Amino acid sequence: MNPGLLFDAVLVTVLLWVAWAALASRDLFRGIVLFIAFGLVLSMGWVRLGAPDVALAEAAIGAGIAGALLLATWARLPGKTEERPGDDLEGQERDHEQR
Q: Quick check: is 86 in a domain?
């Protein structure tokens, strides 16, 4: 098997896994970090396709600027806790049962 083809197969596999992990993540911070990693891996894919200008733009804009903006927005969110959607409903049910 050609080493270049093997590298391409690994790159596609990693790209798909990172994309799935970013979308399936329940933790917002982890999803943002995986989004940044997705942009960096995608830029490696653009280099392999022979488009270094697109790779540089993807790394700078997709991973760099967009990632920084997402992290800055995440830092300003109120109440960053480990709670998940629906956790507050369990507390309401307990309060209702105690009454």
A: no
